Amino acid sequence: MINNWLKIAFINYKKNWLSTIINLFGLTIGLTGFMLILMHWNDEESFEKWNPKKDSIYYFQTFHKKENSYGNNISIPMARRAKEVIPGVEDYVLFNGSGIGLKMTTKVKTVFQKDGMTGTESFFKFFPFKLVAGSYKDALKGESAIALSTDAAKNLFGKTNVAGESVKFDNKNYVVTAVYELPKENSQIKPEFIINPVEQIKNDEKNWGNFNYGALFMLKKGTDPKVVEQKFVKDIFEYRASLDKDPSGMTIQQYLDLYGPTDSELTPLDQIKLHAKASWFGNPDFKTLMILFTLSVLIVVLSAINFINLKTAQASQRAKEIGVRKAIGSTRSNLVLQFLMETFVICIASYFLSLALTELLLPSFNKFYDKEMKMNDWHIYFYSFVMVIMVTLISGLIPATYLANFKAIETLKGNFARSKHGVWLRNGILTLQLIISSFFIIGGLIVNQQVKHMMNKDLGYNGKQIVMINFNETNPKPWLKYERLKTEMRKIKGVTDVSYGEAVPGSDRSSSSNMDFMDKSIQGQHGSMDYDYLKFLNVKLKKGRWLDPNLSSDTVNNVLVNEAFVRKFGWKDEDALKNEIKPGFDNKKYKIVGVVKDFNIRSLRKEVEPIIFFHYRETEWKRFNVYNIQLKIDQNDIDGTVKRLKTYWQSNVEPGYPFDYYFLDKQFAKTFEKYQKQQTLFTILNAMVLMVALLGLFALSSLMIEQKLKDVAIRKTLGASDRILILGLTKQFLWITLTAVVISIPISYYLMNEWLKDFAYRIDMPVWPFIFSLIVLLLLTFSVVSIKAYQATKVNLVKYLKYE
């Protein structure tokens, strides 16, 4: 029986070769997109799965109700107290530096070793990398201990068995206590070397408000993380508030509402990559991934709809076959199974073709996302095969049931086409397909407009021809290094100006704290700088004056603020110049002497934050954070000037260290990369959807016009012209298209408005994409259907009227 079914199937595949190709093509494209996005999702979810202790390790985040935002930092006293007073907390590990690069010297050679990090003593309890040499016991105890990865050991010593060997950097000798092998699986935490910042921890161990560290907590077996989160508020945050609050009468709750944090969040280790609210290791973006996955599934749905339409369109060719089979005793269930099998053959063929196409496209997809994915995960094959089964059932059952319901007598007489069975269903299927198509067109245009809007927005500064060079941060007095280099590097040919700023556009390296004025407090960034840094960036002064090197007070307690700072306090610009604020990072008050226009330091996804600017000598500890020098270079000799800077830097400033530099405008442009990728993906998906949608229009126009051929023959016999017949046949499709776009408009508006909410600087919802979608789909519908309609006007009258 199955052999007979297969023979019939392949006869029909050959007979309807165009429909077969359309089905294969549509499903292959849809399944390929689904597989690629599924691989991307699985790869993102696979981070930290290698860690055997992942189920008991949680990443700590704070929540600030006042700003409605999450933070990824904690202070040392908070972490220590959590271990002491919260019963479910077994241990913690702190880190405050990653991606560190240092010039290291051994008895063998001197090399620059990159990708290190700092971690407290319990690091290897949380990350049990495979031990190659030495011991994890006391591996990070003391300030002279260092642990190396196998690659770092080979880089420094030429071998891996180097426990006990000596390494020198920062004018200190370190002893290699352990050598470990990094996991080959995905992980955000893969340090090439680890050191314990003992000295820094000593300085911060009593400072409750110094949120300089990321933290992971290990919970005891059976501990509910939600209970630990609640205890953090009660036993840690409120305790800190009781120590720090103003004794003049402020309650603990008032302190928390004013300064925060007000709540905590614990995210399992293996969910940090996608599901953390804020992360030390990069911003999670599960929402975008879900959007892409949903869009890929919609493309498969469109492909399935095409399959349904084309299968049903073949009804006229299969009617007599079905009638004969029913007449000789074939049951309805047998016919359904036969048609399901025919559908499955097409689907499984598309599945294997999509596997080949996915393998072919994977290198480009990896390059697009900077990944190294391989098709070696059984989940990909399993879930994509499940999708094939679902498509088989969805796209097979509907046409199979439709065809199997034909009545034997009527089909043998040739009257099956008179039945109106399934008209509403088919119209509904076409409407759904056009709704999806309309959404993709509208969504693609809005994404494109938003990305263009961000790229063309006036950022409030000019970063062109500005090169930023990062210092080696081990210098004991970096501000003196900057001042010396400022004088010397001005003399290099092609350098037109030199300055320094802590809060650099395109960089996340800036700090924030509470800013207090009377009984009000806001959270604001603070950026130390040289006197002329804001003028160096061409930032505009709105009110007051710039910092002046001739005024001693400008290195004591005078600051500039931006417009966002003034707005946050509810002041007018002139009010700000009369006020003094007390920042949480210092014990003295600062006088505002100028207000500058807002300019974007971070991504345009976020609003410009309140920020104060002051000279780096003004706050004692800030001078130790001077970490870069910025140079404006001659636009007519950019390449030559960069080469001269590199030669000077590597020979006179930091020999043995890489020349770590970038252009400010290009660095800020990297904040757009994510959205440019979304724009590219939407464009690709749009092309795929329109292609599949055109095939769907072709399929259903074939079906519905074929069912009306007898009506066409009658009307033509009665004298109807070709133009009237074509308009009559296309009118129904145009109404369906109009209905579909009207339905899609509120859906598209809602979904795209939700997407736009992620951007502080966004376009107003444009009207023209909705109108454009309607016009395009009407034109496409008319173009495709009118071709079929024109062919219908050439119908053989005798063939369709001989039974009348």
TrEMBL record:
Chief place where the protein resides: membrane
Topology with respect to the bilayer: Multi-pass membrane protein
GO cellular component labels: plasma membrane
Domain ABC3 transporter permease C-terminal: 294-405, 685-796
Subcellular localization, as worded in the UniProt entry: Cell membrane
TM annotation in the entry: 21-41, 289-310, 335-358, 378-403, 424-447, 681-703, 724-747, 767-790
Record-annotated MacB-like periplasmic core domain positions: 20-231, 432-645
Pfam families xref list: FtsX, MacB_PCD
Molecular-function GO terms, alphabetical: transmembrane transporter activity
Keywords (A to Z) from UniProt: Cell membrane, Membrane, Transmembrane, Transmembrane helix
InterPro entries xref list: ABC3_permease_C, MacB_PCD, Macrolide_Exporter_MacB
Protein name, entry field: Putative ABC transport system permease protein
Organism the protein comes from: Chryseobacterium limigenitum
Taxonomic lineage from the root: Bacteria, Pseudomonadati, Bacteroidota, Flavobacteriia, Flavobacteriales
